[in-house]
Amino acid sequence: MLTSTRRLSEFSKPHKAPTADDAVVYVDGAFDIFHIGHASTLEKAKRLGSFLIVGIHDDDTVNSIKGANYPI
Questions:
Q1: How is the chain classified by DSSP, letter by letter?
Q2: CATH entry, 5-66, from 3.60.20.10, 3.40.50.620, 3.30.565.10, 3.40.50.1010
Q3: Which of 17, 28, 66, 69 could cysteine-pair with 9, CB 3.0–4.6 Å?
Q4: 6 CB contacts (<8 Å, ≥6 apart)?
C-alpha cells in the first residue's frame, strides 16, 4: 500500500503536511531499544531540511536484516 503525504501528516505535530518550500528529509530504521545514538541521528537528519519523515521497519524486516534474535 502506498502511503500518501496526507496520511503521513496525520502523525506529525502540529498536524501539517510539507509545503512546496519545505526540504523533506526521510530517514528509516529499526530503532530497536531506542537510545541516544538514535536520537542523535534523528536530530542530525532534522537539521538537513525543514520537514522530517521517519520510517520504522517492521519486525519481519528487522529479523531478516539482523537475524533471528531481533527485534528485541
A1: -PPPHHHHHTTSTT--PPPTT--EEEEEE--TT--HHHHHHHHHHHHTSSEEEEEE--HHHHHHHH-TT---
A2: 3.40.50.620
A3: 17
A4: 17
C-alpha separations of 50 from 1, 2, 6, 21, 38 in Å: 26, 23, 17, 9, 19
The predicted model scores a pTM of 0.69
Each residue's pLDDT tens digit, 16-49: 788 999 999 999 998 888 889 999 999 999 999 9
Judge contact between 24 and 49, C-beta under 8 A: yes
Among 47, 56, 2, which residue's Cα sits nearest to residue 25? 47
